[in-house]
Amino acid sequence: MNNAQQQDVVPRTQVAALPYRIDAEGRPEILLITSRETRRWVIPKGWPMKELRDDLAAAQEAFEEAGVMGEVGDSEVGTYVYLKRRRTRSDLCEVHVYPLEVYEEFDSWPEGTQRQRTWFSPEEAADRVAEPGLSEILRTFEHRIASA
Q: Is the pLDDT higher at 44 or at 83?
């Protein structure tokens, strides 16, 4: 797809949770998970759900994909764009990211056998993800929650 074609494409909307916890020194840690097919580091995300507000749908994705629950913020901490790879094509997606302060981690969860999850510092997490827009959200996350 060339640049002219990309400009005509309306991105599909996705919602994502940015799972975090505060460590003993008062600094945030970010939970990343691996994607199922390519094993890249990502955050839990999916399509909006008609029966749920976007922030609650993001929290539901965090449970299903990462096995965590917590308090989800009702305001986005950012958005980013990426190409979702499919078998025969790629879809341009705009992801709306909601913070999720993790209170509970489960040993077993719906996609637990398909994904790995690991806690990182915001800087480490930013270095591990492939999407530049998500990397920027992660790099500025500590400042965003401190000013909230």
A: 44
Residue 93, beta-bridge partner list: 12, 82
Q: Distance between CA atoms of 120 and 118, rounded to whole angstroms?
A: 7
**Any residues with CB less than 8 A from the CB of 117 and at least 6 apart, and which?**
31, 32, 33, 34, 66, 67, 68
* Paired tokens of 111: 């996609």
Summarize the confidence of residues 5-11 as an average pLDDT: 67
Residues 71, 120: Cα–Cα separation, whole Å: 19
Q: Which two tokens stand for residue 9?
A: 């494409």
Q: Which two tokens stand for residue 78?
A: 């950012």
Cα gap 119→108, rounded to integer Å: 17
DSSP character at residue 48 = -
- Tally Cβ neighbours within 10 Å of residue 146: 10
3-state SS, one letter per residue, for 111-132: CCCCCCEEEECHHHHHHHECCH
Domains of the chain with CATH codes: 10-146 (3.90.79.10)
The DSSP bridge pattern shows strands 12-22 and 90-105 to be parallel
Q: What pTM does this model have?
A: 0.89
